[in-house]
Amino acid sequence: MKLPQDTIPGEDVPSHDTAMRAVDSNHNVRIFTEDDIRRITRNYSTLIGKGGFGEVYEGIFDDNYDLVAVKRYIREDLRKEFMEEVNIHSKMCHKNVVKLIGYCIGESTLTMVTEYISRGNLDDMLHNTNSFITLDSRLGIAIGCAEALSYMHSMHLSMNSLVCHGDIKPANILLDDNLVAKVSDFGLSRLLSGGITRYTRNVKGSLDYMDPIYLREGRLTPRSDTYSFGSVLLELIARKRVKQGEINLIVAFSKACEKGKGRKDLFDAEIANENNIKILEELGKLATECLTMDIGKRPHMSDVAERLLMLRKFQKAGDENTSWRFLWGVQISWPRKYKHDTSLSSSSSLEQVRKSFGIFKRNSGNFDILKELGNVRIFTMAELDEATQNYSCLIGESLSSEVYKGALEDNTKVTVKKYIGKVDDLKEEFINGGMILSQIVHKNIIKLLGCCMDAYSPIFVYEYAAKGSLSNILNGMDQFLPDLRLKIAVKIAEALEYLHSTATGIIGHGYIVPAKILLDDNFMPKLSGFSWARRLNMENKIPVGDTVVSGCFPQNMTCDDQPVVLKVKTDVYQFGVLLLVLISRKNYKFYEDHHHLIFEFVTAYKNDSRGRAFFDADITAEEDITVLEAMGMLALRCTCSELDDRPTMKEVAEHLRMIRRSWKRTCNIFRC
C-alpha cells in the first residue's frame, strides 16, 4: 500500500534542496555522475536483485577494488522522496546498518550506491534455501538487527531526532559472509524530529510485517519497528513466513503463549532440540511482547537487544548451571542490571575503568588518556571468555602477545590480542595501539572494536582478517597475481596518505612491514601494528611529547647517524621497501635486510635498466613486467637518502593509481 507522499500535521516533508544540502554536508557520501554509475556497473551488466522500487546491480570501483551494490529506481518523479531516503541513510553509522557510499541524480536515473553484502537477504536464506542455520547464528542475526534499531531509535541524543525505519522485514535484513545482519532500505524511513510520533494519511509498507496501529491510524513511532521486529523474530525461530495461506504465526504464537503450551510444534524442527527448547520458548515470548496490540507495552528496542544478548549468553553456557526460574523472574530488570556501557562518556564509567585497569593504577595523571577511548566498546573478561570460547583458538603469538580468533554476539568475527609482557612495557603499547587506533576510521586500516580493562594487562579486540598477513601470502600463496600486488600497494599507500593528513592530526605509523598488513576475505589489505605509531607535530614532524624515539628503527633507517626522529618520511621509506617486497616476493627481516633489498634491486637495474633479475620469476607477461618496473622505480624514490627528495604518501598513492590505470588499459589492448 504505497502512495506518493506523507502528510504530517505540523511537520513539513523536507524539500529536495533541504535534503540535498543535508547530504552534501556529509563529506563521507559521494555524488556520482551517470557516467560513473555506468562504469561502476559495467553498463548495468550484473543484476542481483529486483523489487517494486527498481533493480539492484553489482558494481566495482575501478581504482578502489570495492564491490558495491547499485540500486536503480524505476520512477524518476520521486526525487524528493529519493533525497529524503539518501539524507536519512547518510546519517547512519553502525556496524549493523548497510553503509551508504554515494548517490546519483541524473537526467534519466536515480541511483544509490551502497556496500556490497555477500550472502543476500534473510528472507532468501530462511525461505528459499535448505542451508542449516544454527540457533546461535539466528540469535546473532536477531541481535544485530535489534542493535541497529536501538541505534536508530536513540539518534535524537546527537541530532535532536530519531529514525523510524518503517519497513523492517527479512528481505531488508542483509547478511554478510559471517551471517552478520545489516539493516538496509531506508525508502520508508522517517525522521521523528523533536518527538517520538509522526502521523500520516498515506500509509506505506509491507502489510505482513506492518504494525496494525500504523496501518489503522497512520501513527508511526519507534514501537512500530518493534512490532515488525517481532514478526522477523518469529520467522527466525519458526522458519515459516508470518503469513502464508491460512497460516498466521502471530496468532498461533499468541494463542500458544496464552495457553502456556503448544509452542514446540511451531519452532523450526532443525533447532527445536532439548538443549535449545528453553531459549526458543523465551524467544517466542519476547516476540509476542513485541507484537502486542497495546503499543505502550511493547518493549524498547534497546531492551529487546539486551534480552537477546542475555539469551545468547545462557544459550552459550548451557542450562546445566543456570537457574532459569531466577533468570526469567528478573527479566524486567535486565536492561538496568546487565547492560554493559560501551562508552566512556560518564565520569563514573571513567572512574571505574581507571580503578580496574592495572597499567594506570600507579599514575592517576594518565587518567585523561582513557577519555580518548570513547569510540570503542569496553569488554569484560567474561565477555571475552565467551567470545573466544575460553581462548581456545590461538592464531598467532609473539614474545609480548597471543592472538585468538573469536566471535561477538551478532556473529561478527574478531581478533582478540592478549598481551603477556611486563605491565610497564605495555603502557606505550596501550597509548599508541589503543588511543590512536580508536580514533581512526579508514577502510584500509584495521578497526579497533574494543578493549578489556578488567585484566592487569590490556586486551584489544580488532576486526578479523580472514586471509592473514602479507607475510602469509608471500610464503604460502601459489599465485600472487599482479592485480593483487597493485591492490595492496595502492590501498596501503592510501591508508598512509590518510594517516599523514590533517584529518588525523598527522600520525606516523613507524612499522610498515608485511607482517602488519592483513587481508580480509576479499583480499582487501588492512594496515595494523600501531604499537610504534605517534601523533606528530605538524610543523617539525616530531612526536608530540617526545622529541626522539630511539630503538624503534635500525641505525641509518633514514640514512642519518643520529637516533631516528619519527617523521612521516620514514613511513615513506618503509613503504618503498614494501614495494620492493611486492615486486620480488622476497620477505625480509625488518632490522637487517632492508638495505640489502635496495642494493639488490639497484644492482639488477644497472644491469638492464629495468631490474628484471630482481623481479618475481612467476611474473612473465610483458605488460606485467612493465608494472613491476614502475613500482621499482617508485620504490627507489621512496628510499632515497635525502628526506626532502622522498615523495609524500599522497604523491605515492596518486602515482600508484596512475600505474594501475595505465596497466589496465594495456591489459585491455592485449586482450583485444
Strand content: 5-15%
First and last CA, distance = 51 Å
Structural class: alpha+beta
CATH class of the largest domain: Mainly Alpha
| Rg, nearest Å | 27 Å
**CATH topology value of the largest domain:** Transferase(Phosphotransferase), domain 1
Low confidence ranges: 1-16, 18-22, 319-369, 539-566
Strand order of the largest sheet: 1-5-6-4-3-2
Total domain units? 4
CATH superfamily of the largest domain: Transferase(Phosphotransferase) domain 1
- What's the architecture of the largest domain in CATH terms? Orthogonal Bundle
- The rough form would be described as globular
Number of strands: 25
Work out the helicity level. 25-40%
Largest sheet: 6 strands, mixed
- Give the mean pLDDT: 80
DSSP helix count? 23
Domain Protein kinase: 42-310, 389-658
Binding site for ATP: 71
Pfam families: PK_Tyr_Ser-Thr, Pkinase
Protein name: Protein kinase domain-containing protein
